[in-house]
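Journal club side-thread
Mid-discussion, someone asked how the predicted structure for our own chain would compare to the paper's figures. Pasting it here so we can look after the session.
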Amino acid sequence: MGIRLTGVKEAIANMRGVKRVTPQALADALNIEAELIMTESKRSWVPVDTGTLRSSGRVESPAIRGSNVSVDLGYGGAASAYALIQHEGNFNHPGQGRRKYLEGPVKNRASKLGPSIARRLAKAWRKVT
């Protein structure tokens, strides 16, 4: 009795394709998630007085270093000291604004991150398999 494997070459080619597209697909997925978080933060969380703090919010381009993929997002620039005080302080913000204006949206999105990223990766993988 023997076992015959078929499609091994195709399976290996598919795995190579998946390996090739995964870092960029992950970078794209993380970037979309970071933009969603920043949008929620700017729309509903960040304190607005003059608008300087809100306009300092940014999402950096994804960084791919070997098997590590990251996206940085935050507030600050010229408003760094003010951003930190507003984020950690306990101020009364008339109108829009509350503390933890970046941490809050990250926590709100946390339960959706894994499934959303998995869907985006699966879509990218389907294109190469």
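Post-session note: The chain has one domain: 8-128.
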